[in-house]
Amino acid sequence: MRALIAPLVLAPLLATPALARDPVLAPPIDCVLGQSCYIQNYVDADPGPGAADFTCGTLSYDGHKGTDFALPVTLDMWQGVDVLASAPGTVKAIRDGMEDVPQGSEGAPDVTGKECGNGVVIDHGDGWSTQYCHMMNGTIAVQQGQRVGASTVLGQVGLSGMTEFPHVHLALRHNGKVIDPFNPTGLIACGEEAMLNGTLWDRDMVYHAGGLLTLGLDTKVPDYESVKAGTAGHDPLGSDSPALVVFGFGYGTLQGDILRMSIFGPEGEVISHDALLDKDQARMFRAVGRKSPGAWPIGGYTATVQLIRKGAEIDHLEERFRIDK
């Protein structure tokens, strides 16, 4: 069962006028950030063996050279989400024909030397280029040498190459050097200071330091694979359901965060539980439920999942449902 991503606004990332030689970028995916998609990873700003995003946060990993615009669950990918050119230019290279199989799953192909998967490279002139990775097999919609404008459809989001979740990896380079579009100057700063340096984006962006992707309801605790796929929580809920379970799926969570899950019904609290998260995780899910007391009361129910960090709620999802028979 899907829900929109609640906005976790730390600070706006102000788009500033770029120098004449710099590209101005549009997001490379046809979605609404913070609702139907989110940013899972930023460029690694740590020059050493560690990893940090441009705010000194944890949304990156060692050596990551792009920005990952991700879909909440795999089911979204199969509905078709376009990958878009971020700026005008000429298609320099394409690759297609690689299967959409997440790494780590049974039968995943060897992608050594082809970690980008199906993708497109666009030359923007003056040494600037963008690369778009992990696109869906058979959807590349442009040809080498073709001139494209900003927001030209290049293909669709997929699972090809070295990836475990559906997303488009956007890498920006200038004369071969990786440039973070959120921090083009490369100045080292943390927290709100990092968000005042300006970006190369054509619009204001919002940095989300982790959050919730979906809230789901089920009659049993689902397995993690079905949660990531978006197929969990499809069992009908009735007065004879063996249990009522609420689960939350999130990203960018930190050790010490609390995932607070609850269900309230016509007669008050059904279940409420605080799950203390014991480590930093790129993505995670937790669930809590209660066995049937014999028959669930008829009427309206509310399920809530909250992500709490250092005593403050940073994200919140809520769903109302009814049990009528």
TrEMBL record:
Entries under Pfam families matching the protein: Peptidase_M23
Gene3D superfamilies listed in its UniProt record: Glucose Permease (Domain IIA) (2.70.70.10)
Stored InterPro entries: Cell_wall_metabolism_enzyme, Dup_hybrid_motif, M23ase_b-sheet_dom
Domain called M23ase beta-sheet core: residue spans: 64-181
Any one GO MF annotation of this record: metalloendopeptidase activity
CDD domains hit by this protein: M23_peptidase
Alphabetically ordered keywords of this record: Signal
Domain of life: Bacteria
Signal peptide per UniProt: 1-20
Protein name: Peptidase M24
Organism expressing this protein natively: Celeribacter ethanolicus
